[in-house]
Amino acid sequence: MASPKTVKDVQKLTERIAALNKFVSRATDKCLPFFKTLKQAFAWTDECETAFQELKHYLSSPPLLNPSKEGENLYLYLAVSASAVSAVLIREEGKKQLPVYYVSQAFQGAESRYPRIEKIAFALIVASRKIRTAIKAQALADFIAEFTLLDEDRITDEVDKWTIQTDGSSAQKKGGLGVVITTPDGEVLKYGVQLKFPATNNEAEYEGILTGLGLGKALGAKNLLIQSDSKLVIGQIKGEYEAKEERMQKYLKLTRQLTQEFDTVEFVQILRSQNMGADEVSKLASLEEGGISTDLAIEVQKHPSIEEVATFTIQSTDTCMTPIISFLQDGRLPQNTEEAKKIKKRAARFTILNDALYKRGFSMPYLKCVDKEEARYILEEVHGGICGDHAGSRSLVNKVVRAGYFWPTMQVDAVEIVKRCDKCQRYGNVQRLPAKRMTTIASPWPFAQWGIDIVGPLPQGKGQNHRQNPNRRNPLQAYLCTEAVIPVEVGVTSIRRGTFNKGINDDELRLNLDYLDEVKDNASSKMTKYQKKMAEYYDKRVKLRRLDIGDLVLRRTTTATKDPTQGKLGPTWEGPYRVIHYSR
């Protein structure tokens, strides 16, 4: 086989190597230069040629694989390099060790930054997935025993179980749940739930067991031992008693549904004296929020678990995501051909994990899709919750995405949340931009606003002289058509005063009066043009604010209305006030 000369030749080579992966020892390390070539501009380097020739030499006389025999022991050897993990399954025949199966896989992303012990564990996981039928559970047990510290060396023949003790207490309008979890390593975890709804003692006991099952699932437990001091509830779950009431039947059905998510779940009734830890936690959880002075984790539950079953699945309500969910789960598409094409195209970026819809993101691997109510809660909590900083809408959306949530209208909803936030309005900046557009007034007579027409012609000063008009023109006509004489021209005759002819001057002035209408029209047109340009420049900075009667508004605080004890960090606005009248 000749050396590759194009990208297609390299692709063909890697495809053939993938087909021979299980027959080649450490195939990924041997072929790494070829894979690097595909990730960049094609260049067949000396490194690629050397690796190619070594691979050809290896394949010319490869070690033959031997089939395993039933009942014999197999041995797994692991190897870790800087770029890949490898494994080989070995069987012994006499004093010879013969290969049965080769495994190799390159590191991707953060896998190359694992510590060496985690890389070895990763190699074992890769091998167990690819040759699952040939690896026994003892290989994993031997591996854990070899790399566990001496003070943590604990091998038991029994399956490790998580022990969960639960207790529930109820009052007229509230109650409390206590859960004490003991891990296989002996660690004790305590968790409390405050019930914000009325419940009977038996319902509280069921809620405690459901909370324990939920925590066990979240912690990754597979084998549970549930202990409770309620004889009735444990008897109903074990089938010793019959649940006659409708609510008890719903609790029992939900409990059995959750137990199916574990390998084994055992329910045991214990004495009240043996359940003091969970009882203490339930009493603490039932106290008012101000009375809890411990670091115990307390959850607030507002509705019974049996009422939340209807909203547990992702298809509880119809949303814009419902067609995508229907297509991913059941393959159902709308009748409209165009809509069906759109759904298929959009669904390529969505997936369902653990009964929840996720969107494959660009900034995050997966973004959980939430409904309208969850979206509103997320925005309010991120914007003004315990860790909220009342950020703007754009920053708010970025934080929500980085937290791992998505819904189609998140940007519009973020703008509305910020606009409605009371604190953001009270401490907001003072708007310096004008609130209304400019209204220009085109004066029918320039200089009329200065009262020149009302006053009439100004009196002649002592020693001043100007050319007279036979028709006694108004000051505007004099301004537009007459040249004034300064006092020095009277004392020392100037050229224009020496050549002045009264008759010719009067004729010219009469002609100018005939042109006066055109001059006024031109002046008015220029004024309108200037006003239009000025209004356009002004209106670019306008931020319209329209108020109607009945609206609630805030008023800017002044020196007289501001609380002097608040200093510079006090609110900028005060109110609210209701608009009862406005003038245009």
Task: Give the secondary structure arrangement, pairings included.
Elements: H1 7-19, H2 27-38, H3 46-60, E1 74-80, E2 84-93, E3 96-106, H4 116-130, H5 137-146, E4 162-170, E5 175-182, E6 188-195, H6 201-218, E7 223-228, H7 231-238, H8 246-259, E8 264-269, H9 276-286, E9 297-301, H10 322-330, H11 337-347, E10 350-353, E11 356-360, E12 366-369, H12 372-384, H13 393-403, E13 405-406, H14 410-420, H15 422-426, H16 452-455, E14 465-466, H17 475-481, E15 484-485, H18 487-491, H19 495-498, H20 502-514, H21 516-539, E16 552-556, E17 573-578
Parallel strand pairs: 4-7, 6-9, 7-8, 12-13
Antiparallel strand pairs: 1-2, 2-3, 4-5, 5-6, 10-11, 11-12, 14-15, 16-17
Structural overview:
This protein has helices at 7-19, 27-38, 46-60, 116-130, 137-146, 201-218, 231-238, 246-259, 276-286, 322-330, 337-347, 372-384, 393-403, 410-420, 422-426, 452-455, 475-481, 487-491, 495-498, 502-514, 516-539; strands spanning 74-80, 84-93, 96-106, 162-170, 175-182, 188-195, 223-228, 264-269, 297-301, 350-353, 356-360, 366-369, 405-406, 465-466, 484-485, 552-556, 573-578. It is of the alpha/beta class. It has 4 domains: 7-152, Ubiquitin-like (UB roll) (Roll); 162-308, Nucleotidyltransferase, domain 5 (2-Layer Sandwich), CATH 3.30.420; 322-426, Orthogonal Bundle (Endonuclease III, domain 1), CATH 1.10.340; 448-537, no CATH class. The strands form 5 sheets. The chain has a 6-stranded mixed beta sheet with strand order 8-7-4-5-6-9. A 4-stranded mixed beta sheet has the order 10-11-12-13. It has a 3-stranded antiparallel beta sheet with strand order 1-2-3. Helix 10 packs across helix 11 and helix 13 (393-403) packs across helix 14 (410-420). Mean pLDDT is 78; it is low at 149-158, 309-316 and 466-480.
